[in-house]
Write a structure and sequence with these properties.
Elements lengths: L2 H6 L4 E3 L1 E4 L21 E4 L12 E2 L6 E3 L1 H11 L6 E3 L10 E3 L6 E3 L3 E4 L5 E3 H11 L3 H8 L4
């Protein structure tokens, strides 16, 4: 696929900006006190044309740019991509002292057969914490920690 065709498949979007509200002209009487106070000091605007918008997500009525916010971007990306590697059951141990393990998330001691390990970083979690990381966070905290602070 050519780069120009690939570029046309991308959807442009922007993040709403909070901009300071412009001062009122002196000829317009205000409904507030004698100083001419207003209800909002900032307004939400399109990041391309600065047209005022009321909420996100939306499409700018002036330049037709899709306006979104970072939490919505993360949710959409996490829903589309499985960022957390799958968890697998720990191998059973023959040693009686190794029949329990400590969850790296909730720090509870759990029976080894109820523990799961991340296939990416081998971090051990209990079943409920593994389900939380996989289904809610969608990002393995052990993998992120290994990526941000690699061992020396």
């Amino acid at each position: 696929m050519s780069p120009s065709k690939k570029r046309s498949m991308l959807t442009p979007f922007g993040v709403g900006k909070l901009l300071p509200a412009p001062p009122l002209p002196q000829s317009i009487p205000s409904s507030g006190d004698a100083q001419g106070s207003r209800t909002a000091e900032v307004y939400l605007a399109c990041s391309r044309c600065r047209f005022p918008i009321s909420a996100v997500p939306t499409t700018c009525p002036l330049c037709h740019l899709l306006i979104t916010c970072p939490p919505l971007l993360h949710t959409a990306f996490a829903e589309y991509h499985a960022l957390a590697p799958p968890c697998e059951a720990l191998e059973p141990s023959e040693n009686p002292a190794d029949q329990t393990a400590k969850c790296s998330a909730c720090h509870n001691t759990v029976a080894r057969h109820l523990m799961r390990a991340c296939t990416g970083c081998r971090t051990q979690r209990c079943e409920s914490c593994c389900a939380f990381v996989t289904n809610v966070l969608r990002v393995c905290t052990g993998c992120v920690r290994a990526y941000i602070a690699p061992p020396f």
